[in-house]
User: Fold this.
Amino acid sequence: MKGIYVHIPFCRVICTYCDFIKEVAKPKRHRRYVEALCREIAMAADRLNGATTLYLGGGTPSLLDDDDLRLIFDAIAEVILPASLQEVTIEANPEDITEAKAALFKRLGINRVSLGVQTFHPDALRFLRRTHEPADVFQAVLRLQTAGIMNINLDLIFALPNQTMAELRHDLDEIVRLDPTHVSAYSLIVEEGTRLKTLIDQGEVTPADEDTEADMFNAVIDTLTTHGYTHYEISNFAKPSCESAHNRMYWENREYVGLGVGAHGHEGNRRLLNTPRVKDYLERLENHTSPVVADDPDEGIKDTLIMGLRLREGVSLKTMHTRHGVDVFTHYPALEKARDNGLIEVVKGNLRLTHKGMLLGNEVFMIF
Amino acid sequence: MADKAQIDALKARQQRIRNFSIIAHIDHGKSTLADRILEHTKSITAREMREQMLDSMDLERERGITIKLNAVEINHVHSDGNAYVFHLIDTPGHVDFTYEVSRSLAACEGALLVVDAAQGIEAQTLANVYLAIDNNLEIIPVINKIDLPAADVEKVRKDIEDVIGLDASHAVLTSAKEGIGIEEIINRLVTDIPAPKGDVDKPLKALIFDSFYDPYRGIVPSIRIVDGTVEKGDIIKIMSTGKTFEVVEVGVMTPKQTPRAALGPGDVGYLTASIKNASDVRVGDTITLKKKAADAPLPGYRPLSPMVYCGLFPIDSNDYNDLREALERLKLNDASLIYEPETSQALGFGFRTGFLGMLHMEIIQERIEREFKIDLIATAPSVVYHVHQTDGTMKKIDNPSLMPETQHIDRIEEPFVEATLLTPKDYVGNIMELCQSKRGRFQTMKYLGDARVQLIYHMPLLEIVYDFFDKLKSQSKGYASLDYEFHSYQASKLVKMDILINGHSVDALSTIVHREFAYRRGKAITEKLKDLIPRHMFEVPVQAAIHNKIIARSTIRAMRKNVLAKCYGGDVSRKKKLLEKQKEGKKRMKSVGNVDVPQEAFLTVLSLDD
Assistant:
């Protein structure tokens, strides 16, 4: 089991809250990037062997034109058997999903689409600088399903500045009405270097307070679990057997290969990082040079716990013993206090966060 | 011992030495004036010129005030053809530093009294001028900032004559900023200030008026020679201890250290003698020679007793010894700083430290954090209470947590000061109201000229220690000034107020309050702590109590959400860094009975808007 992550750094507009590696560029640059990416794929052929999932993230991968997408999938088909990929996901903006695009996705073997919905409130969408209207989401879901792509994730952001509980409830109602197989729900994070951060520092925007965030998070959990979703990771909800196999690899601290600008990989016991600058990435690959700029050992025990506890089922104590040779409670005595505080519990041999712990995960992660 | 030719040279030199200091209120232009004098006499080249040359501590330049005194030698060729030597000894202008002022004045024969042409005389200037008059100094009045549109030279001249009683008809009119009047000041230094007395043939008597630490040369005392001479190779003796040292170098500050063959009467300079211990060269001591010793030391100084105490605790308990060393080092040229070990249940091991006033306290804390890189927690300042117990004994209490049990207390007396306030007459109403609200007792009111008023109040020092100074400034648009000196101990209705966090009384947060203010203050403190202490896994009550009776309460609600929303393969390392940062933040807090309390919380009482 192994995952492949491919980063597409292009966007039409930069969102208010986004701190990923991205740029607004012309189609000509898209093509130059795709060609570099194809070269990296070819160079990484050996490392991609054994992959079972593929994830195209961004940026906005759906922004690429049909030929660009075909080039990428062709390059991948050159090095691994497409049939070995059980889950192939692409991130998309709702307004990009035309009937033709949906059909192309299907033809390329994409079987899961993650739509950046964020909210159904037009004003909030504009504040976030999203470029779609609420109606686009319904269109997109319908077109994907018509094309035969049934596994659909909707991204939702809550605890937006000035958002009311009634507004969140409306967002949740719409999600439930659309009935996707998967929902990722994030409370808005204020990242350094974003426009959102500047607005807050200048006092133009007031972030939601902790109580509002907690109330909203609870509302999200209650609504989605009532409607048949399993809360299987801190921010992720899925219908039965629709959990994201690719993302699970991250949380289970497994191997994945990162391709494209700024992509991270976890191979062997090393964490790899590609150059975060598009220009540098292009030049390196055009010179047949590796784009990897950092190659550090991972922190096995710590990583397995921090990532693994995000999952509802948590981490198997037995696996911790066989994989890392540690008894977790002896290795981290402070865990006892977290257990006393009701943040963690041991259920059927697994150490996991309680419901309370899901909202207060950092208090546990800080122990490691 | 200096030879004959050298002695003659020193004698001739003595006649042309002028030692002076500058007395001025903060912002009246003292440091700028000093800069101009240095420039005009070409004592420093333009390349060396930094704004406010004398203020060498970073902290001084940032705050625009002078803390440590500095002595500079200036060479000047006068119109009479002779070369004169000036020693400018800088003085601090803040009320907390009167002691430093008296030190520098004792090393001088004259002083420039600088008064702002627009603002007139301020309370602090008054206090320092009287000190100078007591020291028999020749005072040259200087009216500065005459270029300002609001300047009123005649009014200020009259002020100086009416309020201080000095003849101001020959006052020098200057604008240090514009360089006006500098030459006249220099001429007057030559003609008005007497040459130092003192006899080159007598045994050495040198006054230590400051000292600093040099990592390569040990403790370096700043000295003023009164009688005799000193040079390299001499064996000197410290008169109070009898300890002897061999002189390695003598010299003057120009303003950098510049070695000289010998120092004679009237000279102001330094000497190095591989002195290792700060306690060996106390400021105010007299240095003489081992072979030919003086029979009696110079009068020295009377150190002021500290008025304000607070606990200083290292955040990291491993820094305790470093903190002790830092205090020792600072005490080297600050005899008014006193400290002794203190143990707090909440904060661990630290030092109870005494200061002359609030600014002194802030400066010391900042210097420890900056120069010695020790993170500190300071507890709220306290004054010294006289607690008369029912058994007839009296205890001096400078730490609220050590207050005896109520049933043993007969009465508590607190220090009152006589506060002198100068203000434009428009603000008299505001200021009187402020003084009343701070338990001040009105004494007298006097008009100085027709626009300014002098108010005298007797006030509890405790109230001044809190926010009186800031309030005074805001009530008078910054125009009122304050000077105070200890008056007497008086009985007051005082009570000890404890603060309980999560049910645990936190000794470091206990304060003494006046009974009538207790409820309001308790409420303000608990509210403020509620905002300062971060949320925890559980609800944390914050209570104020007077002998076991809860008088105010606030509640810090339990933490409800603290989790990274997004964590995928892309950013494991970055997310881990965020977690590390949260962890670090926690480490910087003090854990008090299961609750992490940030540094600022221990000073809340100071910044209440009650």
